[in-house]
Amino acid sequence: MGIEITGITKRFGDFVALDDINLSVPSGQLTALLGPSGGGKSTLLRVVAGLESADTGRIEIEGIDTTDLPAQKRNVGFVFQHYAAFKHLSVRRNVAFGLEIRKQPKDQITAKVEELLELVHLTQWGDRLPSQLSGGQRQRMALARALAIEPSVLLLDEPFGALDAKVRKELRDWLRRLHDEVHVTTVFVTHDQEEALEVADTIVVINEGRIEQVGTPDDLYDDPASEFVLSFLGPVTRLGGRLIRPHDIEISRYEQAATADGPITRWTRIGFEVRLEVTPTDPLHPEPVQVVITRTEANALGLHLGDHVWLRPQVGAQTVRA
Ligand SMILES: Nc1ncnc2c1ncn2[C@@H]1O[C@H](COP(=O)(O)OP(=O)(O)OP(=O)(O)O)[C@@H](O)[C@H]1O
Fold first, then answer.
1. Is residue 291 a contact partner of residue 236, using CB atoms and an 8 Å limit?
2. Which of 59, 104, 115, 128 lies in disulfide reach of 132, CB 3.0 to 4.6 Å?
3. What's the rounded Cα separation, in Å, for the pair 322 and 226?
4. Mean pLDDT, 10 residues at a time, over the chain (322 residues)?
5. What residues does the ABC transporter domain cover (predicted)?
């Protein structure tokens, strides 16, 4: 069950925004659509929501073919980056709105709204206007409003994208906890790999209208299917013709079996990290290699700018042929 996406293609003029997308989103999970800007994530979410119609393909939500159903009949909750609240209505009335137009009994609506406000920790702000809330509180209200109709799926398009880094971090922890409580099938769009790795049960990497890989955060991190996935999930560097993560490189001051060796040509300290650049002496692979170690390691190894060092992948490190 969950969401079944079969053979979805979407063109805007000659441009192919989605190219034969096939994807099963498991019921009750938190799934991230991750990829660079313009890759097609929002378009896919909008097609699932019914806000955009695909040229070909089929969408099933919880076993029901919704391909030709209008958005309001699909029973989806949707939250955008910039949430359009009713400015003249209180937070409570905004949350109640979807229930009022469904003509539910008043006492049921009141009880449901209080339950939702508690869930998103906004009980004490219920009588305020949306303009009197912070950005993070507004997005929580948007989630409460989307959840009010008890959707079969919750679709979130960069819900925290417009917020500053600290609030984003808080809200992503909060979303994870909220999801653990309500278990509604949730799909959220993000271009932030850390957000996806931290929050999602399953990550779908999308690039240029195609799915690059689907897996758990660990699957993707430990076993990237392509150079694109490896490099999208964090910084990478080239070591002897292969791509590797800079902190997966072993560095030694002493001559040893190594993939590359050369002098340390840059040294940058950022907090607890030391980022080094080593320029290999090998004329076949002369481009500088980035290496990241902790300050403690750098001190223990007695490393300095200009030292000649030997580099090789750490045991178990993931590498991909470049
Ligand atoms: N209504 C439209 N008309 C024409 N082109 C569109 C339309 N909507 C999206 N596109 C194009 O389709 C491509 C995919 O857009 P989409 O918004 O799905 O990407 P995205 O991965 O969500 O990126 P972002 O994170 O920047 O929103 C982009 O190149 C975009 O310019």
1. no
2. 128
3. 10
4. 95 96 95 94 95 96 94 89 83 91 86 90 92 88 89 90 80 85 91 91 96 95 88 91 93 90 96 95 91 95 95 90 79
5. 3-233
The residue behind tokens 């206007």 is: 129
209 lines ligand 1 (CB under 6 A): no
**Best mutation site among 14, 16, 18, 37 for ligand 1, i.e. most ligand atoms within 8 A of its Cβ?**
37
Q: Which domains does the chain have, with CATH numbers?
A: 3-229 (3.40.50.300), 237-314 (2.40.50.100)
ipTM exceeding the 0.90 mark: yes
161 lines ligand 1 (CB under 6 A): no
Distance, CA of 228 to CA of 85 (rounded, Å): 38
Please provide the size of the chain in residues.
Answer: 322
Ligand 1, atom 3, residue with closest C-alpha: 12
Which residue has the CA at smallest separation from atom 18 of ligand 1? 40
In three-state secondary structure terms, 46 is: helix
Q: Which pLDDT score, from 0 to 100, does residue 234 have? A: 87
- The verdict on the CB of residue 259 being under 6 Å from ligand 1 is no
